[in-house]
Specification:
Elements (H helix, E strand, L loop, with lengths): L2 H25 L6 H21 L5 H24 L5 H20 L6
Amino acid sequence: MSPTTIAYGYLTIAIICEVVGTTFLVKSEQFTRLVPTLMMGALYAVSFYLMAQTLKTIPLGIAYALWGGLGIVITSLAGVVLFKQNLDTAAVVGIAMIVGGVVVMNLLSNSVVH
């Protein structure tokens, strides 16, 4: 398996850990519940570790754009599904713009490692 494939695998898992950690952040109720707080901390630690591994191969700007952009989209969806939060039209348009920016970077930028 190529180093780039492995790096994108690490990045994918880092994004998932960050999103799940953020859902535990909500469940921690401002750090007043021990188990969700510990889960959040552990998942954030794994996420940052895997992001650091990703940066050995993928440039920082590209990795962070993917991590941040996909994290926003997936976290927004988690808020809708898990916490019954609503996204208004402006939020959906903003999220679509973020997705568009990540797609443009990955398809058209010479900075992206393929």
